[in-house]
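Weekly sync, protein design subgroup
Attendees: M.S., D.O., the rotation student, P.L. (late)

Item 1: inverse folding check
M.S. brought a backbone from last month's batch and wanted to see whether the design step gives back something sensible before we order anything. D.O. pointed out we never logged the input encoding, so this time it goes straight into the notes. Structure tokens as presented (72 positions):
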């Protein structure tokens, strides 16, 4: 699979922040024993992964990109 960057800097920062918040809430607030905690942990991990990798498989599937070449 070709991992061309398709996540821009603002999108990346939002993903990273949301991922950290969701993982933190899942582990400290909701608890991993609850359905909400498990779902939050999974979504948070996906957001962190896509933010760190600068690549979103869903964006690729939909042909969308928030990356501009002058983003850095």
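Designed sequence read out in the meeting:
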């Amino acid at each position: 699979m070709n991992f061309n960057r398709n996540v821009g800097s603002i999108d990346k920062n939002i993903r990273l922040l949301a991922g950290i918040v969701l993982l933190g809430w899942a582990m400290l607030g909701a608890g991993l024993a609850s359905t909400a905690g498990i779902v939050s942990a999974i979504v948070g991990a996906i957001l962190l992964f896509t933010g760190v990798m600068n690549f979103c498989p869903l964006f690729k599937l939909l042909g969308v990109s928030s990356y501009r070449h002058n983003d850095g």
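Discussion: The mean pLDDT is 89. Helices lie at 9-30, 35-53, 57-62.
Action: P.L. to compare against the previous round before Friday.
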